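Please, structure for the following, as tokens.
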Amino acid sequence: MSSKDTGPRAPSSPVCYLGEDPEQARDVARWRKAERERLRAERMAMSVTARADWAQALIRHLDRLVGDPAGKVISGYWPIKGEADLRPWLTSLHGRGAEVALPVVVERAAPLHFRRWRPGMAMERGNWNIPVPPESAGELRPEIALAPLVGWDRAGYRLGYGGGYFDRTLAALHPRPFVIAVGLQAAEVPTIFPQSHDIPMSVIVTEDGPQTP
């Protein structure tokens, strides 16, 4: 399936809320699962050099977008499954006066918590065995939040891993942070067929720069 395929029985509208049509929702769920698998396989096939170049390009764009980080609360992520490794940027933010946080799953199917992170701190194993700051690090409320993506569309919607954690978190945060989804330019799809729970990103950043909705 190419990035332009919409899959069998996929809705024709780029914004199609599916709560009233369970059969259509199942079709879209199957399509999303297939797209996740395809896009993740393409990402995992990247060479070490290409992955490093991608991360460096993202860091350059993020630095320009965020500006002076001093005094800002910025949440990042710990890279898994071929995601861009932005930990050097998080270290740089900390050194320039930002407060840096990482997301933590405290309860299944509940909003994420954000714990303070600093370079070199002792981490513990969290959900999916991802390193997370310990509870003793304390919690922060991010003003700017990074969200790694698997796929994305021009309406600003992000295709994640399917757990719904990030959308659930954004729905619960007031005020909502400025959300920057980061990923590959090649991960663009015509539409993710957003459902009622999907929340558009503030901006999507790829190696080609910001892709503003």
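Residues 1-19 have pLDDT under 50 and may be disordered. Residues 159 and 193 are 10 Å apart (CA to CA).
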